[in-house]
Amino acid sequence: MTSFALMRATMAGVLALPLFFTLGTSASAQGIERLGDFGSWSAYRFMEDGKPACYMASVPSKSAGDYSKRGDIYALVTHRPAESRRDEVSFVAGYQFKKGSPATVTIGDRTEEFFTQNDGAWAPDHNLDKTMVQAMIRGSTMLVKGTSSRGTLTTDTYSLKGFTAAYRAISASCGVN
């Protein structure tokens, strides 16, 4: 795993905390500002060490796989301008990935591998993040495939309806051009 990939995996917990606080509670009560709902995507802003960070999240419109129980499933795009980080694409699978197995992300005719750790998946570098965000802006659906630690294959289908509007909202709120 590259140092970039290791840093991203370490940051997963930092992102997960505000995301899960928004579930079932008022976003503002937890210091998270909901910027709005845009089609299948919701946009948020929160403070991290006194500096703004923004993310957008969506749940699958359809999930397939032979599983009996699965946790929360999300696709996310995050900006952390104070750290000069933007367009970070990640996924929460709702299960522990099989060790060493990639997640594959397909938008249109483009399929890319994301590295996995625990229940998360990330692009291996910033260039792929940027490329995937542009594909999401142009696309209509996104498929994310993964393998659980028990060997279960899953396919999650995300609608990209509202992606561009949510992306504009987080970019404006965090001052990212």
Automatic annotation (TrEMBL):
InterPro entries the record matches: IalB_sf, Invasion_prot_B
Alphabetically sorted, this entry's keywords are: Signal
Q: Does the keyword field hold ATP-binding?
A: no
Question: Has UniProt tagged this entry with the keyword Signal?
Answer: yes
The record's annotation in Pfam families points to: IalB
The leader peptide range reads: 1-29
Q: State the superkingdom.
A: Bacteria
What is the protein name stated in its UniProt record?
Invasion associated locus B family protein
Q: Which organism is it from?
A: Denitrobaculum tricleocarpae
Instruction: State the taxonomy lineage.
Output: Bacteria, Pseudomonadati, Pseudomonadota, Alphaproteobacteria, Rhodospirillales
